[in-house]
Amino acid sequence: MTKKILTPLFIFFAVAISFYPLAYVFADMRMGLLASKSVQLLSDGIWKFGFYTHILLGGLALLSGCTQFLPKLRQKRLALHRNLGKVYVASVLLSGCAGFGIAFAASGGLMAQLGFGTLAILWLFTTVQAYQSIRRKNVAQHQNWMTRSYSLCFGAVTLRLWMPIFLGALGMSFDAAYPIIAWLAWVPNLAVAELIIGYRAR
């Protein structure tokens, strides 16, 4: 029963947030998180390239990655599963590298920058491990690394769930909340991934 409730929610949030980056393309450049950025940073061509690479390909990773956890797709459309997996890996490599680059300019100071920088490194590392595992035909290890990788990718969702809680319900300022959310967006996700991996092993 829990699985039947959580799985649709998981897919709903993954799909919904995967299209969220398009708002930055078609809406006001100063919307959302960008409202905290300086005019100088927003006019920096290198930063803008890194930002849009990160969010657009991150959205593609979020969308393609959620399909990798659908058992029926793996069983009935293995070729499609593999191709979507390749899309996920390529998206992560580009988005993760760009995310690491723009992490140095993250709002909220050093703690936020460290949080997002660490996330980018772990996201890249777990994804490469997942890819190498399946290349070695170690399916169990591949599933475990993909679970870790996507839990980090899902930080794009949990970040946007924590924001209204901290800013609205708790009434914290953005500057105070964002360094916390920079870690809270992904550390609990990774902990849940480890619990799932442990449960799967048992």
The number of helical segments is 11
Radius of gyration: 17 Å
| Total individual domains | 1
Q: Globular, elongated, flat, extended or rod-shaped: what is the shape?
A: globular
Q: Given this structure, which CATH class is correct? A: Mainly Alpha
Q: Give the strand content.
A: under 5%
Structural class: mainly alpha
Largest sheet: none
CATH architecture: Up-down Bundle
What do the pLDDT scores average to? Answer: 90
The H/E string reads HHHHHHHHHHH
Bin the helical content.
over 70%
Low-confidence stretches: none
CATH topology: Four Helix Bundle (Hemerythrin (Met), subunit A)
Tally the beta strands: 0
Distance between the termini: 20 Å
Give a quick precis of the structure:
The protein has helices at 2-18, 22-26, 39-42, 45-66, 71-76, 78-103, 110-135, 139-153, 155-169, 174-184, 187-201.
